[in-house]
């Protein structure tokens, strides 16, 4: 998508491993035309030595969409970023926030915050390789390092490599003793760190992530920084994306869930015809579309039954939605 046509990064859906694949992103795009969407983290090794189409194929309707990379070698990241640009992504994002042991074993993710000069060099290498924006997603601290100076110095150093947009998950990452899930819940949120980064680096775009789940909290954060990134809440209650789209971008935005189902039926039919994609790979992301409506439990049950999904076609979505319509 040409840069002139890209919306601001006011609202984005976070990269979530095993969740924000291309089917999830297509669904979210139907709900919010302006939100930025992010891929799951893709490692440089997976791209340089693996199945590139499997990792990078996406539907043009998803745009604006960013490719999140995991890696710590400037040359490899530059090559992977170039692939992302060639495949049509609108942004390359470097993961400096994931605390999982698998990521630590690869010497990237949150542990990179201990090496800001290396991250600066990684960003510079990617910036030299592509013409699209290179952004960084990171935490505010590592383990028990709770000083604002730590994240301030990290951002200041990395910005020297040419990054102008930083996505700040406003929690520390504990590299030992907490699971990835616990790392999203136990370390306290410090939105004030993101706000202070914006005051200290007025020339940079600062986007905050972590614990944001409703419109009032979105507005509170937007009073301090340039954008918000929302993860689990957007996935678990996807219809909220329509509310946020209306409030932030287009007051007249008012799709119906029936219209969304109809689009998903068409999408699933295309995926099955062109790629042989099984329904279970797609509909697992749609389970929460009926949240809050009578019949929602029946909707989820029909779309998650292995026996039902085994040989199912797109008409399964209409059958599941009929349970909601009849319950209402």
From TrEMBL:
Residues annotated as site: Interacts with tRNA: 95, 181, 184, 297, 300
EC class name: oxidoreductase
Cofactors required: FMN
Residue stretches making up the DUS-like FMN-binding domain: 13-317
Catalytic activity: 5,6-dihydrouridine(20a) in tRNA + NAD(+) = uridine(20a) in tRNA + NADH + H(+); 5,6-dihydrouridine(20a) in tRNA + NADP(+) = uridine(20a) in tRNA + NADPH + H(+); 5,6-dihydrouridine(20) in tRNA + NADP(+) = uridine(20) in tRNA + NADPH + H(+); 5,6-dihydrouridine(20) in tRNA + NAD(+) = uridine(20) in tRNA + NADH + H(+)
InterPro entries recorded: Aldolase_TIM, DUS-like_FMN-bd, DUS_fam, DusA, tRNA_hU_synthase_CS
Gene3D superfamilies noted in UniProt: 1.20.120.1460, Aldolase class I
GO terms of molecular function: tRNA-dihydrouridine20 synthase activity
PROSITE patterns named among the record's database cross-references: UPF0034
Keyword Oxidoreductase attached: yes
Keywords of the record: Flavoprotein, FMN, NADP, Oxidoreductase, RNA-binding, tRNA processing, tRNA-binding
Pfam families: Dus
Record CDD domains: DUS_like_FMN (cd02801)
Residues at which FMN binds: 15-17, 68, 137, 169, 209-211, 231-232
Enzyme Commission number(s) of this protein: 1.3.1.91
Residue numbers annotated as active site: 98
Functional description taken from the UniProt entry: Catalyzes the synthesis of 5,6-dihydrouridine (D), a modified base found in the D-loop of most tRNAs, via the reduction of the C5-C6 double bond in target uridines. Specifically modifies U20 and U20a in tRNAs.
Family: Belongs to the dus family.
Protein name: tRNA-dihydrouridine(20/20a) synthase
Upper taxonomic lineage: Bacteria, Pseudomonadati, Pseudomonadota, Betaproteobacteria, Rhodocyclales
């Amino acid at each position: 998508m040409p840069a002139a046509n890209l919306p601001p990064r006011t609202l984005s859906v976070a990269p979530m491993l095993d969740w924000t694949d291309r089917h999830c992103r297509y669904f979210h795009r139907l709900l919010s035309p302006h939100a930025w969407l992010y891929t799951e983290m893709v490692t440089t090794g997976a791209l340089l030595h693996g199945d590139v189409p499997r990792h990078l194929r996406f539907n043009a309707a998803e745009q604006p969409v960013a490719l999140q990379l995991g890696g710590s070698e400037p040359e490899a990241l530059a090559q992977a970023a170039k692939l992302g640009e060639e495949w049509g992504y609108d942004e390359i994002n470097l993961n400096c926030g994931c605390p999982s042991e698998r990521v630590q074993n690869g010497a990237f993710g949150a542990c990179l915050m201990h090496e800001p000069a290396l991250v600066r060099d990684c960003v510079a290498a990617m910036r030299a390789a592509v013409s699209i924006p290179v952004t960084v997603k990171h935490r505010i601290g590592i383990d028990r390092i709770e000083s604002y100076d730590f994240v301030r110095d990290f951002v200041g150093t990395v910005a020297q490599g040419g990054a102008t947009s930083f996505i700040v998950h406003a929690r520390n990452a504990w590299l030992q003793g907490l699971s990835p899930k616990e790392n999203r819940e136990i370390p306290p949120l410090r939105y004030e760190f993101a706000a202070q980064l914006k005051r200290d680096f007025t020339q940079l775009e600062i986007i905050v992530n972590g614990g944001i789940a409703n419109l009032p909290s979105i507005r509170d954060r937007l009073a301090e920084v340039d954008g918000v990134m929302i993860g689990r809440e957007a996935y678990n209650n996807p219809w909220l994306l329509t509310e946020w789209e209306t409030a932030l971008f287009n007051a007249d935005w008012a799709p119906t869930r029936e219209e969304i189902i109809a689009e998903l039926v068409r999408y699933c039919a295309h995926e099955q015809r062109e790629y042989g994609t099984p329904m279970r790979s797609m509909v697992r992301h749609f389970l929460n579309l009926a949240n809050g409506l009578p019949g929602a439990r029946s909707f989820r049950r029909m779309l998650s039954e292995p026996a039902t999904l085994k040989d199912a076609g797109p008409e399964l979505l209409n059958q599941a939605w009929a349970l909601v319509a009849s319950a209402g």
